[in-house]
Design a protein that fits this description.
This protein is α+β, with helices and mostly antiparallel strands. It contains six helices and five strands; from the N terminus they run αβαβαβαββαα. The protein is globular, with a radius of gyration of 17 Å. A hairpin with a 5-residue loop joins strand 4 (about 95-100) and strand 5 (about 105-110).
């Protein structure tokens, strides 16, 4: 019985991580630009691109290159906020593009289950739609160029 409980705990802890990280084949700026263009082409609004490393440089600090693309779909976001106004704390959506300590470019975002787990929502279809879109955005944005 203890082995089953331990196994269940391990499985739950492995699936509990709501941050998804994927590697990109392009540099930070290109990847961020790709995300911006893909998101825009899907009819979503790009609200900001935050240059974290640029901001660090302005205060004489070093930070690996990193940019955050902030975007969303006001129709979807409004529908979620109508269920629970505090969803506005976690919207709009974001994808962080950064160079890790090994020099690899990564893209990180939160799984859509984050919204449902932190807010009072009954929106499994919208959660799936967010997950599918986010996965597609990073998959396309970080693609290796064809030979």
């Amino acid at each position: 019985m203890k082995k089953i409980a331990l196994l269940l705990t391990i499985v739950l802890s492995l699936t509990a991580n709501d941050i998804i990280v994927k590697e990109s084949c392009t540099d930070v700026s290109t990847t961020a630009n790709n995300i911006k263009n893909i998101v825009s082409s899907k009819g979503l609004s790009v609200f900001a691109i935050i240059n974290h490393s640029g901001n660090a440089k302005m205060v004489d600090m070093k930070l690996n290159e990193s940019k955050m693309i902030v975007f969303g779909n006001p129709k979807l976001g409004t529908a979620l906020m109508q269920q629970d106004m505090t969803v506005g704390l976690d919207l709009p959506l974001r994808i962080l593009v950064y160079k890790d300590t090994d020099g690899k470019v990564k893209m990180a975002y939160r799984d859509g289950s984050w919204l449902a787990s932190k807010h009072i929502l009954n929106a499994p279809k919208k959660e799936k739609k967010i997950n599918k879109a986010m996965a597609m955005f990073v998959s396309k944005a970080g693609q290796c160029s064809k030979d």
